[in-house]
Amino acid sequence: MSKPDWHRLYTIAIVAVAFLVVLGLLQQQHAFAYAPDDPAVPYHCWQTNEDGTFKIVVDNSTGAQSLVPCEINHGDNAWMLTSAALVLMMTPAGLAMFYAGLSRQKNAVNTLHMTFITTGVIAVQWALWGYSLAFGPDAGGYGFIGTLDWAGLQNVLHDVPSDAYGGITGFTIPHMTYMVFQMMFAIITPALIVASMAERMKFSAFIIFIVIWATFVYDFAAHWTWEITAPDNYGRNPGYCNFGWGGCLGALDFAGGTVIHITSGWSGLVIALMLGRRLGYGKVPMEPHNISLVVLGAALLWVGWFGFNAGSAAAAATNATSAFVATQIATGMAAVTWSLISWAHTGRPSTVGAASGAVAGLVAITPASGFVSPMSAIIIGILASIVCYAAVAFKNRRKWDDALDTWGVHGIGGLAGALLTGILAEKRFTPWGDNGLAFGNPAQLYENAAGAFAAVAWAMGLTAAIIKIMDLVWPGGIRVTPKEEEVGLDLSQHGERAYVTE
Length: 502
Prior knowledge:
Layout: H1 6-30, E1 56-58, E2 65-67, H2 74-102, H3 108-135, H4 175-192, H5 194-197, H6 203-226, H7 231-235, H8 245-249, H9 257-275, H10 291-310, H11 318-346, H12 351-365, H13 374-398, H14 406-424, H15 443-473, H16 482-487, H17 489-494
Antiparallel strand pairs: 1-2
Helix pairs in contact: 2-3, 2-4, 2-10, 3-4, 3-6, 4-6, 4-9, 6-9, 6-15, 9-14, 9-15, 10-11, 10-12, 11-12, 11-13, 12-13, 12-14, 13-14, 14-15
């Protein structure tokens, strides 16, 4: 067998690499070849001349005209892509572990699978129509829902910034970077609801439910809270205020207290009540089967939440720093507070309680993170644990089987965070924000309350309708049979077990 001709192989490899580099440079050169009449132009940021007209580059060989994109800040882009990855980790890793650990052993795989599969299902929904409905041009100028102009991510460019979505330093990240960051928020929101339907809903029904819910609950709430447009709704509606109706009202939600936690938490309560209690609820032990998974999941959520909150600055800017610090302080304070309350109430410091307290703090600081000082974050952390602990105790007395406490932690924590934002916000942290009641602006509390309670009503009403209709049309209803529930959903729904010891 002859020896390989390494010199020839190296030469071929070098030529191949050089070819790929040249090809990449050619693609990069033409990546910015967007003509003035390109349908994506109205939705993106382009450099202009002193008189406001677009800068035009003319190809001398063809005479073709192309626009010059606004400059992309690679530091901002790197931070936002990192933040997107951190938020993604929160669902198939953090939330999946957290919920699986809180479940009974016979349902751990089902709970984990529901959370994990949401990552895939909603990623597709978001790309096909969700992003367009939530963040696209407004339909009719009412600030309620978007159009399908960006369906399939058409007109969402990977190499040009949006002319509406950016940080306090301007439009510095590609439009597609912003889209994928927001995708991770859309993914985790319906996954949070898994806690309320845990151990009793058919897996097949769950898949259809999250697609419908994400479209009619999340996408609407995201649009009216976070949507921004270029002037006059991209020229379609003269006089349009350039925000969803919640933004026009002045409601502040930096990272999703209303859009994510209120919608998921209060929807979860509706589902828990409509599905009914689990078999044996209040009669047989239903304690968490693996506290190690609970703590691991909470830790992953805590780390990922820095992308969640600080990433919502949409740039590596100063308000990303303030949001990062506020998140850490509020979460630490909430974990300590819940532990102390639990210790005083039961006589023992609860490990699950400390993890739940941390999550409650993360939830409550979410809408406020980019608007509040470190000392205000301490107040939010303390109050978050108090009200969420009280909500869980109230739920238990009422025998509402919100199995893993979506409502008590996310619904109540999100509502408390939204109201506290209206009290403690300070404009000095994020210039497009405003001062709250404690800093001389009582109107901010009203505005935040209006946005928050509108989300509560919308989420509860739509969720009730979705569950009712699905239960009527789904063969055998959306709840598993008593026999399947008794055996456990791991075996009855998936034919798998969390632990195989023999």
